[in-house]
Amino acid sequence: MSWADYLRSKPTVQRRWRRIYKGDVPYLTDSQNEIVVERKIEGADLSEAASDDDVNPTPPFPVRRQSIDPDSLLASVKPEVVTEKYPNNLVITARYTLWTFVPKNLYEQFRRIVNFYFLVVAFIQTIIDSPVHPFTAVSPLAFVIFVTAVKQGYEDWLRHKNDDQVNNRPVRVIRDGKLTEIKSKDITVGDVVKLNADEQVPTDMLLLGSSDEFLRCQINTSNLDGETNLKLRYCPSGLPHFKKDGDFIQLHLIVECEHPCANLYEFNGALFIPLKKFAQMVMSPIQSGQIFSNGPDNNQQDPNKKPEEQKHAFSDLSERVRKGSTEFMTIPLCMENLVLRGTRLKNTDYIYGIVVYTGKDTRLARNSEKTEAKFTTIESAVNYYLLIFISILVLLVAFCSVMFYAVDWYPEVAGDEGPWYLRDNKNPTEMRKQIAEIVNTIGSFVILFNYIIPISLYVTVELQKFLGSKFFVWDNEMVDDEGREPLCNTSDLNEELGQIEYLFSDKTGTLTQNLMKFRHCSIGSERYEYTWDHRLRPYENTGASVQSREGSQDSNYIDVTDSDEVKDFFRTLALCHSVQVVARRKPSFDTGPADFKRLRKSKKKELSNDTTSTNETVKLSLTDHRRGTWEYQASSPDEKALLESCDLLGITYKGEKEDIMTVDVAGKIEKFRRVMHLEFDADRKCMSVIVENSKGELWLLTKGAESSIIPKCDDGPTQHTLKHVTDYALMGLRTLVVAKRELTVEQYEEFAADLRAARRLIKNRQERVRDIYSAIETNLTLIGATGVEDQLQENVPETLRAFTSAGIRVWMLTGDKLETGVNVAISCGLINASTKQYIVDNMSLADGDAIVSRLLGIQKEMDASGNGEDSCLVIDGMSLAAAFTSCRKLLRDVSMTAYTVVCCRMAPLQKSQIVQMVKSSPGRPTCCAVGDGANDCAMILAAHVGIGILGKEGRQAARCADFAIAKFGFLRKTILVHGHWYYVRLANLANYFFYKNVVFVMPQFFFFFNTNFSTQPLFDPLFLMFYNILFSACPVFYYGLTEQKFSATTLLQQPHLYKLNKRNALMTFKVFLYWITSSIWHSIVCYYLPYLAWDNFHNMNDVSSFGTVVFTLVVLVVNVKMAVETVFINWWTVASHLYSYATFFVLSFVYSEMDLRIIGVRPGDFRHVYFTMMSSPSFWLLMLLVCVTALLPDVTYSAFNRFLVYRGLKSKH
After folding, report:
1. DSSP code of 606?
2. 444-459 pLDDT, tens digit each
3. Residues 1190, 1080: contact at Cβ < 8 Å?
4. Residue 545, Cα to own-chain centre: how many angstroms?
5. Per the count of CB atoms within 10 A, which of 89, 373, 677, 1206 is most buried?
6. Given pLDDT bands bounded at 50, 70 and 90, which one contains residue 198?
7. Boundaries of each P-type ATPase N-terminal domain copy (predicted)?
């Protein structure tokens, strides 16, 4: 069945389809007597008008409709209205615009319960007869709102800058036959885009033309799937060559493809080209000697043949023609024809592509989640305690209001009018007065007690987080050799770094450098070792590593050309690959000036000869000097390492031209014709090539995983090789098994015929091709195996061991194959010799019962053995999808029982689903995700804390992350040091704010007992206004920036200290009660000691004087309390305290002793009070007595607590 017939059959369609019209083409319709022609409109979407049973709907855009002759395509009808458009190509991560900033920011700020509460209090203060001036409530609120708005506006401005950089990137498109430069955001569906080498693909597009002679290109997909190996993409088979900008004037086609989805590995669609237009399209290319694209088969027609000898190309295409009211040439499309947004063009001068998905429809966008506001554990605790304080406020107001009217029972209080219940309550006027009095009384108590809610808490926290994040950015120990500094994209989550319980890490570019080194090989039944000086020798199991024997003078080396068996092994490696030999290119940079600025800041003075750009798939090795102006570009970093080792051993792959592969074997040139390339796939777990040697013999050469290759071998040292491979795996090496098979001409022709037929299928095309590949890859002869080391980043094992000591569980989530993921987990120490591995793989959605049974078995085994703390669950993406559907809760329970989890072959969306699964588990553990590519953005956004690596895979992860660092090794200090400090600082800061406001408000409550619960304020409005803003702000603010209970060295050497603060330990209800109890005790001492000693203050006998004494003692006690809690003390700490006291004394003195009526300030009863108080010896003695009495319990408790902590440190050390 052809693609067109498949569409005509109208089955129950599981996927929705869209059509993109380019040029003057007829509209596809089911009617044989009616044809629809597009009226110069490109890129309209038909999909929304389609039902699930109709793949040829009525077009929702202007068309001409008339029954016509197949030779006539012009008609005249009334146009219809356009009802659907594609999304634009804008990238928007910013939260505000210039017009929405003020209303949206105010809305978000007043959603905070504290801000809204003080807004209500300020309103009440303006409408009642307030005991204090309304300015005392309005000014702190305005200050808080303003500072927060400035901070959030600045951060959003940085997001706008990043968005503009991406959206305004210049892109070249062909419009009206001319190459036009536009901005990336202006790309629309149907545009033909031209990309040059090393440029990033701005949108999803179908490959139409390439500078490559075989109409293909190489792309780096690391931003999507995390794999830095290069992948091949091909022009659709049968499409004429488009090599010039002017060729696209003759472009007339319809692209029909599936609706936008998140699948990175599958794509289905078709090209429909009217044969009349197709003839016009191909005439110019044929006359100019160009040929047709034949797609991934690489079965190109001979370019040396004359055009008339290529007529069969057109007749072959006629087999895929659909006939109706007009004739269409139909070309099936697959994933190998689609170039996705976020990938980068490599080793190809230029390509052309027609845009099929833009903006939010691209696969990259579909695999990204919307940014949601993240809340920290401390912020949640603060909100909870605020509700408690509001409840306390309500109780205080209710109690005092009741007592206010209760005292009317006493005649000396009620006066001539008598108690309130004996008054004339039937008079309406009197009733209104009484209601107004009640409202005014309650409002007055609310105003006097509202200071128990710390309004300055939020603004202090905002400033502390913002400035504190700068210390992270300024940490010189976290700057790498290339000058890349850490980044902090948001300061809202600093303290969450100190609460991490689960760490989800990408593999490629995060844990590893993706820099492979060939280490060992097994040939025949013998093991060989590739030494540091690039020579081969028999392996001796002395227990020492290659590195430890680098200085060995052992001369037991072999020449690979002396043994036919060894030579055949390395010749096979030199032929079985997808490597290209290309001219060496100059380094390119991702983000232009930003990276050049970083390069200039590098500590390296010169670039060495083997330096590449930050985006190169694999770094050049030490062998590059032998190749001069050319280099290997590999579809796999393993293949590059193997070919470079072959080169140094004397067997050099020289490249391929017109399917002829040239190999230099010890100076002797051997040539082979590459007949076919059988690309790698995850199900077969191998790749193969079919080559023809100079004798005319056909050989199938294959390499892949031992689990796939060895069962298919009929000959060779299988047992020895399997043992060697197992040993390599235990050494943490990536292994490949190499085998071969000789084919007859008949076998090859039968295979090629079956493959051609399979590639014409629409349904189950990939499965059928895979089966045919597997059928030919049998009856193999085993040659040997290789062991390649995937070099880890610096300090990765040490960092992971430190996290284990800190109680942080590490999960590795990778898009790479299962064997690779396990090998890397072994190399970095996530899996050791004693770790029990539970593997779940190759289970599809149809295997629901099987995966439930498998997970139940694993759970039962772990429960029975009790070794969950020393176990690792290994699962692949396909099985994970099945488990999410069949047994999500069981999967979560099993995964969280195992100490380590390795997830392989994962799509970006699956990574975020894993993070969400753990986040939503009972206990709500704090999760951190770290990655370096765009494929990691979804999980970074899903985690409580997202950390990006400034690696080789671009800056997408760093941009969407909360923090960014240059290397994984820096994560150790980020979490164990900065995270610990941030949490301790902010937790104690929050507790302290609640404490000092209780100390401030409770004396007012005690004062009401001495005033018969009148609404007389104890403190002057000056003190109410500046207590939180000036008099007690500086010491705690400096504490929040610099406090270090333990030094960085201590925290790094003893990572178990990180456990001290787990599960929000400093914000538990027990700790909260300690702070509240301490505050009540301090308020009692600050109020009642002056009250009892008041007879000694002979010259001070008014309320203002008493309130001033009490307030001064409150300021003294709360600031000394801060000093008691501080461990890291320096001159700046002392200065912050002196500033606080000096501000209080100077401002109070000026307010009390100077005539400020000229500026509208009337101190009233406060006049000369302060000077009188300061001149009293009793006051100074009282200060000492209050300070000692209030803080002696705190000093004792603090000293005892520190003694216990340090004794524990000493014992563990």
Report:
1. S
2. 888 888 888 887 787 7
3. no
4. 36
5. 89
6. confident
7. 83-137
What distance in Å separates the CA atoms of residue 633 and residue 229, rounded to the nearest whole number? Answer: 9
* 1006 and 1092 Cβ atoms separated by less than 8 Å: no
- The answer to whether the annotation marks 85 as part of a ligand binding site is no
CA dist., res. 113 & res. 458, Å (int): 11
| Crossing angle of the two packed helices 377-406 and 113-127, in degrees rounded to 10 | 30
CA-to-CA distance for 730 and 601, rounded, in angstroms? 41
Minimal CA–CA distance to 26: which of 335, 277, 390?
Answer: 277
Q: At what angle do helices 1069-1092 and 1103-1125 cross, to 10 degrees?
A: 140
186 in a known ligand binding site:
no
- Reduced to 3 states (helix: H, G, I; strand: E, B; else coil), residue 564 is helix
CA distance 947 to 372: 16
Residue with tokens 């017939």: 5
Does the pLDDT of residue 753 top 70, yes or no? yes
506 tagged catalytic: yes
| Under 8 Å between Cβ of 353 and 345 | no
Mean pLDDT of the chain: 77
pLDDT value of position 1168: 74
Share in percent of the chain as helix, strand, coil (round to 5): 50, 20, 35
- Asked if residue 653 lies in contact with residue 647, where contact means CB atoms within 8 angstroms, the answer is yes
SS3 585: coil
List, as one string, the DSSP characters of 160-195: HHHHHHHHT-EEEEEETTEEEEEEGGG--TTPEEEE
Max alpha carbon distance in the chain (Å)? 128
Q: Is 814 annotated as a binding residue?
A: yes
Whole-number pLDDT of residue 113: 72
Is the pLDDT at 301 greater than 50, yes or no?
Answer: no
The answer to whether 905 is a known ligand-binding residue is yes
> Do the annotations mark residue 213 as ligand-binding?
no
Report the amino acid identity of residue 27. Answer: Y
In a 13 Å sphere around the CA of 77, the CA atoms on its Cβ side amount to 20
Residue at token pair 């590593």: 545
Residue in the structure block whose two tokens are 């008598």? 418
Look up residue 952 and give its amino acid.
K
597 is in an annotated binding site: no
1020 belongs to an annotated ligand binding site: no
Distance CA 79, CA 64 (A): 7
Nearest to 734 by CA among 511, 521, 530: 521
Q: Give the CA distances from residue 111 to residues 320, 463, 990, in Å, rounded to whole numbers and listed in that order.
A: 62, 19, 19
| pLDDT for res 29 | 44
Residue 584 gets which letter from DSSP?
-
User: Cβ of 543: how many Cβ atoms within 10 Å?
Assistant: 6
**pLDDT value at position 713?**
92
Which residue type, as a one-letter code, is found at position 379?
A: E
State yes or no: 233 annotated in a binding site.
Answer: no
Which of 204, 225, 247, 506 is catalytic? The answer is: 506
DSSP designation for 592 = T
